[in-house]
Amino acid sequence: MPTGAQELADIARGPSNAPLDAPSIEAIAQGLKAYRRSAAPSLGPLKLVIDGKARPFYQAIADPKVPFARVEVALEAAPPASDWVFLRPFSRILLAGDGSAEVHPPSGPKERVIARWLPREGWRHPGHRPSGRLPTPSGLPTAIREGGFLPFGAALEIYASEERWRYEIDLLDGRLLADPRAGRYPKAARVRWPSRAAWSLDRLIARSNLAPDDARLLEAVAEIEPGARSDLGGPTQPGRDVQGLERLAARHLVEADPATGRWQIVPEALGGGTRAPAPRRAPAPARGLQESVRGLLAEADARATCPMCGDAFAPGGHGLLCDRCQREVLGAPSS
Ligand SMILES: [Zn+2]
User: Fold this and answer.
1) Cα-atom radius of gyration of the chain, to the nearest Å?
2) Ligand 1 center from residue 328 Cα (angstroms)
3) 175 C-alpha to center of ligand 1: Å?
4) Which residue in 74, 95, 101, 178 has the most C-beta neighbors within 10 A?
């Protein structure tokens, strides 16, 4: 059942839990209309089982006693294989409140993963200060209940053993949305981001508090092979989304790749908080496209921190979690 503007206005609170004022109610209604007009095509309805009961996301938010300790996200029907394109097929995903999770593929064994939300379109009160973090499955409801913030859609980031997958989810109508890269780029152009490196990228996006379209643009720059995204051009060869890319460049998030002249993520932007920024590299001699992508992934990997505790990794490891969290959260590594 779709969630309407009135229902949202009844749930929403201003910052510090104050009652909503009339301009905020109007902003929610307008934002909702814009979201429904522009959201990506649906791949199918989702059934959400939140703490044992099937119910819409915002119905559970409205009940402060629901902890979101265990959330099942299940597809009511499998989309045709051709619709998945950039996404790994699943039948259901079980999210524990702390972010440990299980993905059940349509066939074959389940996989233990780490999950985080990245809020996308929604309403923010002008006085709301975004956390700049990727909330856990129970952290997102807490942030909404604190007031000033209502996500209409969110990306569910799944950090699996081999790579990170991102599912765009409509939280209002409970739908899985098509990946924004589908139909625009060939599937073969997808850059695989191993989970640790992807965690650096996703944290960069979260703390930059980008408008959702700019965040997706940054993701396209990072996750599509440079040779396949000539539509995005470069600083000297403007392509699509010129203004969005210039906004990202002005914030030092993208720059010209010395190898290709095309936009690339600024590697130094991937470092976050716990380490001193790496010294600025001298402009690299022209390398192949593959080399520049590999260099960026290595840079992101070197700057990753443990997604559960935030500690820096011991040198030489490649797991998604530090050794301690690996034992506590995922149990012994499965062989
Ligand atoms: Zn840890």
Assistant:
1) 20
2) 9
3) 32
4) 95
Cα(321) to centroid of ligand 1, in Å? 5
Cα(324) to centroid(ligand 1), Å: 6
- pTM tops 0.85: yes
Do the beta carbons of residue 151 and residue 168 sit within 8 Å?
no
Share of the chain above pLDDT 90, in %: 61
Q: Provide the strand spans (E) within the chain.
A: 42-50, 53-54, 70-75, 92-96, 100-104, 111-119, 122-124, 149-151, 153-159, 164-170, 175-177, 233-234, 237-238, 254-256, 263-265
Ligand 1 geometric centre to CA of 333 (Å): 14
147: its two tokens: 């007031």
CA–centroid distance, 23 to ligand 1, in Å, is: 43
Distance, first Cα to last Cα, the chain: 42
- 293-322 pLDDT tens trace: 888 888 888 888 888 888 888 777 777 888
In this prediction, residue 195 has a pLDDT band, given cuts at 50, 70 and 90, of very high
Helix (H, G, I), strand (E, B) or coil at 218: helix
